[in-house]
Structures are given as structure tokens and as C-alpha cells.
Amino acid sequence: MIVRPALVRAGVATYRRRVRLLPVALAATTLTAMLGAPAQADGPGYKFFKAAGSPTKPGAYWDPCTTVRYGIDFTYARKQGLRVAREETRWRSAVQEVAEAMGVRFVYEGRIRSRAQNGVQPKSAAPVDLIITFGSESRRGRYGYGRVLSGPVAGIAGISWRQSTSAARVDYGYVIIDAKEVARRTDAITAPFDPRPATQRPPDVVRSLYMHEFGHAVGLSHVRDKKQLMYPRLLPERADTLGPGDLRGLRKLGNQRCF
User: Fold this and answer.
1) DSSP letter at 136?
2) pLDDT score of 5 more than 50
3) Model's pTM, two decimal places?
């Protein structure tokens, strides 16, 4: 796990988190070693990017009384052989589970176009609050995010907020998925997406990745409890669904005062 420090300018703070995707081909040996030690609980099973006073109170969150609009740029995913319709369905399924847990309305505005801004985060002319895109490890080009995607890092996400008197309102969020990493280390290209509930089918590690990164984009940080989806390493044998701590944290984020 690599954690980058907060960047604070003129009252606007931005946090970024990266997650490593365990190679599916090596999952058996790596997973066995990891399960040899007991999971470390992390208090209530959730953490926030920004806490207020106590660790269990979010200091920055999306306005629960306002619709959050998001769009997805699949351009680079298509270039790596990922099927857009399949990944679109998988993404919408992941967002829906997180949104329902929060009780906040997220509306999909459709497929958008974006570009890398300084190789760090995406920008788009589309009327959305949260950008989801696929990029590469290159430091050049429209989808070059080499400054933040490197090695086995499969995704990165971040939020920015503006401080008010009582709390900070999140006004922008993004997720960047390393399309080549997903195509190379999972069966996303060949295996169809199974829309059944996670408890009724084999684990979908790509959907876990999407939900994990979207969890960052709504305000959750990493935890040390392996039972939670916000654990910083994706475990291929873990069901792609929210853990009890994830659910508690998301409910806290959605159960805040309106701005």
C-alpha cells in the first residue's frame, strides 16, 4: 500500500489512495500466507479520509441531500480489450451497492471523455461531480497516469472538499483504474459479468476493485481488517460485497446534515 500525503491549497484538500491487486495466478500461495495470521480489527471496521473530532465522525462528505452525478470514460479500457458494455454493467452494479448503503443518490450520466491532468487526476468537460476512468502507467498521453499508477497498482481514487463552518463538503471525486493491470491479471476479458448477488456466485475480484475505489471516492479510507472491502489488498477468494464495517462507515457518511 502506498499512501500519498494530503495536498492542501486555498482551503481545498485532496486525498488519494492506491490499492494493489493481488495477481489471480498467485492468489493461492499469497492468500494462504496471509490467512496464517489473524485479521487485525480496526475499531469499528471503517475509517474516513478526513475525520472530525473522533475517528467515527466524518469531517468531509458528499451532501446527502444533493444528487451526485458520475460518468465513466471507457476509452482506454476498450483499447486494452475490456468489453465496455460488460464493464459498464459491473461498474453500475458496484456503485449501486455503495449508494444504497449510504442512502445517497448517485446518478449515472453515461459515458464521458476525460484526460489526465498533470498525470495525476482526470478532468472532463462533462457535467459530472465524480469521474471514473481507465488509464495507463505511461506518463504521456490523454490517459497517462504514470505518476500515480505504477507496478502492480490496479486503481487509485481521491476526493477534494471545501471547508465550511461545521464540516467540509466534498465537491469532486475520481477513480482511475489501470486497464492493463485488470486485463493482464484477471479474467475480465474472457469471463462474462454475473449479475447475481455476490453470495450466489463465485467472487468477482474486478467488481471488488471497483467497489473499493468507489468507497474511497465517497470518503472511506483503508482499514486493517481483512473482513472489510476497504482492506488495501484485494483477496480473490473474498466475496465482492461490503463488510459490516464498510456498511457502518457508509451509513455514517450518508447520515450527515445537509449543507
Assistant:
1) B
2) no
3) 0.85
